[in-house]
């Protein structure tokens, strides 16, 4: 009897998860279609876009400081910084219009605003990740880059950062649906966040007095972690993953609440 | 269900309500994921858990220092208030690191510590051990660089050396020999810089001293030939003699004049006086001729002598300068001496910490997952296009 009951409970979980997975997968494909269509290279733009940006910025810095600042190769330094940062920028910027553009889909009962946000976030993350892997691979082949020294840290940083970005995108998505001002502000915020994010600087080059303040910035910690993962001689002293996890968890919780509440305000035509 | 279209998988699962059937259905639906991500991870986990042999790591810290460190150069970074953490000893410390990871060091360890034997101990698994019994130096070097690691902390300049082998004693032994070899290399560099720095000024000093000896020899020869220790003082004595004689002559002349009207010219007293005046006159003429006469006089000898003296003074000055420079160069070279300071001596490991099994498995899992995600994105796009 109790076994029957337990099975029932597991049934629900597995069913729910597989439905969720199918929905997210389908939404991700739709996202690809919607954004890039089928013209020329189509969906490949999701990789090509960050790749072009990262290449240009990396090359620029490779020319400006060819000897590599801080004992790290400039190409790899910019690449890890930028291609991870655009996970945040794209997720964060697209969150503003996410619900408006996919409103009609909410007619289907199993599609929730959460699924929409998750699929968009996943597409961005995987796209930027592909760009990073491809460019890193090309860099290694050409000889301007090397394999990550501690891959686990680099991958952990990417996962953590995409979670953090997703949590923030939930918030932005939920609030900008009802308050357009939030949407307007999200673009400038993503620009302002760039210089202080740590994408192009490390904690060790900052003046000592700024470090305690910068430590409050969860992105800084994530980028320190990514650097520590990528470079042999990077310092792992400023990694504070517990703090980032706490911030991301809190934002996720808040975001989930907000996105659940917003559902009531969405009027499906 | 309220007229909602359900995904296919769920409808399929409905028919087989039994657990094995359900699991099979799930596995079949995700077979690609299982094949690409889960299966390789399982293989790696099995290898790491059952086969991979333990490795022991011995670590040591050392730092390469000048005897006296100068002020570090201020660069662009300092201008901006950035601390790039450059220290004057960085390049020397890289020198040691480079040496310890070179084929030179490997060749030495191979003959000295039996490096090949260390990397092929009994009972180690064949994936992580050195494969060949007689490896080429290049192969051994590659394996060695995999097992021996050096990492420099940029701010403190301390180099962290780690050695990983299959036996605790081996790791300890190799780490110790490496530190010793580093010290020997530093000493060699010291010897070389000392020699280079000091040799030049030493050569100059020797040249000056040779010149000084030559001029001294000339001077001695001159003295011997002229039988005169110091023509200058001889000349002075001569002048004194002449002036004394002249004074006497003047006195004698005055007395003779005083006698003129009083004493008869043929009186013995007068004649004696006149003779004295005469003798003095001839003496004065003779002696003053010796001072500045036409040949072999004091004046002509003095000019030769003074030339030699001036030459000697010049050479002596050169010699003093060269000697000072030599001392300075020696001090400088001493100041530039390098030392390898052992901050932490190698330890004898007790517990095996390598390979890091959990870390490796997790790395494989996540990277395969990433690869799968990227592949999925690409494949999904391709499929969409083919519609």
UniProtKB/TrEMBL annotation, chain A:
Metal-binding is among the record's keywords: no
Domain ABC-2 type transporter transmembrane: 24-231
Domain of life: Bacteria
Main localisation: membrane
UniProt KW Cell membrane keyword: yes
Transmembrane segments: 43-64, 70-88, 126-145, 151-177, 189-210, 237-259
Membrane topology per record: Multi-pass membrane protein
Keywords from the named record: Cell membrane, Membrane, Polysaccharide transport, Sugar transport, Transmembrane, Transmembrane helix, Transport
Subcellular location: Cell membrane
Alphabetized InterPro entries for the sequence: ABC2_TM, ABC_2_transport
Family: Belongs to the ABC-2 integral membrane protein family.
Protein name as catalogued: ABC transporter permease
Protein species of origin: Novosphingobium humi
From TrEMBL, chain B:
Swiss-Prot/TrEMBL keywords: Coiled coil, Membrane, Transmembrane, Transmembrane helix
Source organism of the structure: Novosphingobium humi
Sequence intervals crossing the membrane: 28-47, 361-382
InterPro entries noted in UniProt: Bact_polysacc_biosynth/exp (IPR050445)
Coiled coil: 191-218
Source superkingdom: Bacteria
Protein name from the UniProt record: Lipopolysaccharide biosynthesis protein
């Amino acid at each position: 009897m109790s076994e029957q009951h337990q099975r029932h409970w597991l049934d629900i979980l597995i069913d729910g998860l597989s439905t969720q997975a199918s929905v997210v997968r389908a939404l991700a494909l739709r996202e690809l279609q919607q954004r890039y269509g089928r013209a020329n290279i189509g969906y490949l733009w999701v990789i090509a876009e960050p790749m072009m940006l990262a290449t240009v910025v990396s090359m620029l810095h490779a020319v400006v400081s060819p000897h590599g600042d801080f004992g790290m190769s400039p190409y790899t330094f910019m690449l890890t910084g930028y291609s991870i940062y655009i996970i945040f920028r794209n997720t964060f910027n697209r969150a503003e219009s996410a619900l408006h553009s996919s409103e009609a889909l909410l007619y289907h009962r199993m599609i929730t605003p959460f699924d929409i946000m998750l699929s968009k976030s996943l597409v961005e993350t995987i796209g930027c990740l592909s760009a990073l892997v491809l460019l890193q691979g090309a860099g290694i082949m050409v000889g301007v880059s090397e394999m990550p020294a501690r891959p686990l840290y680099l991958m952990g940083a990417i996962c953590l950062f995409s979670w953090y970005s997703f949590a923030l995108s939930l918030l932005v998505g939920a609030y900008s649906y009802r308050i357009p001002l939030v949407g307007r502000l999200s673009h400038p915020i993503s620009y302002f966040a760039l210089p202080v994010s740590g994408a192009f600087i490390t904690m060790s080059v900052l003046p000592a007095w700024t470090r305690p303040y910068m430590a409050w910035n969860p992105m800084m910690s994530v980028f320190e972690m990514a650097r520590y993962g990528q470079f042999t001689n990077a310092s792992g002293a400023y990694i504070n993953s517990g703090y980032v996890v706490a911030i991301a968890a809190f934002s996720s919780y808040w975001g989930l609440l907000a996105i659940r509440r917003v559902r009531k305000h969405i009027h499906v035509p | 269900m309220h007229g909602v279209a359900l995904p296919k998988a769920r409808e399929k699962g409905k028919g087989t309500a039994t657990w094995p059937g359900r699991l099979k259905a799930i596995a079949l639906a995700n077979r690609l994921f299982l094949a690409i991500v889960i299966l390789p991870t399982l293989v790696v986990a099995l290898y790491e858990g059952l086969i991979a042999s333990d490795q022991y790591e011995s670590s040591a810290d050392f730092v390469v220092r000048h005897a006296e460190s100068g002020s570090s150069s201020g660069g662009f970074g300092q201008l901006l208030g950035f601390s790039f953490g450059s220290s004057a000893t960085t390049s020397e410390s890289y020198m040691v690191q480079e040496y310890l990871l070179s084929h030179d060091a490997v060749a030495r360890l191979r003959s000295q510590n039996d490096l090949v034997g260390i990397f092929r101990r009994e009972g180690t698994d064949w994936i992580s051990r050195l494969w060949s019994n007689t490896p080429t130096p290049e192969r051994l070097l590659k394996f060695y660089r995999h097992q021996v690691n050096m990492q420099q902390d940029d701010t403190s300049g301390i180099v962290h050396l780690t050695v990983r082998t299959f036996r605790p004693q081996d790791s300890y032994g190799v780490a110790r020999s490496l530190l010793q070899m580093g010290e020997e290399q530093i000493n060699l560099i010291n010897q070389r810089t000392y020699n280079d720095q000091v040799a030049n000024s030493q050569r100059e000093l020797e040249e000056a001293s040779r010149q000084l000896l030559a001029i001294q020899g000339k001077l001695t020869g001159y003295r011997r030939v002229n039988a005169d220790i110091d023509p200058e003082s001889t000349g002075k004595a001569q002048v004194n003699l002449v002036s004394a004689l002249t004074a006497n002559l003047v006195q004698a002349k005055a007395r003779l004049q005083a006698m003129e009207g009083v004493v008869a010219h043929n009186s013995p007293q007068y004649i004696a006086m006149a003779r004295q005046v005469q003798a003095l006159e001839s003496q004065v003429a003779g002696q003053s001729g010796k001072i500045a006469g036409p040949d072999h006089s004091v004046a002509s000898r003095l000019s030769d002598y003074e030339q030699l003296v001036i030459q000697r003074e010049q050479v002596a000055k050169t010699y003093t300068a060269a000697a000072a420079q030599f001392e300075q160069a020696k001090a400088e070279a001493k100041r530039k001496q390098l030392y390898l300071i052992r901050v932490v001596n190698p330890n004898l490991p007790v517990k095996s910490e390598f390979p890091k099994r959990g870390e490796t498995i997790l790395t494989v899992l996540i990277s395969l997952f990433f690869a799968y995600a990227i592949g999925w994105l690409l494949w999904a796009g391709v499929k969409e296009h083919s519609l």
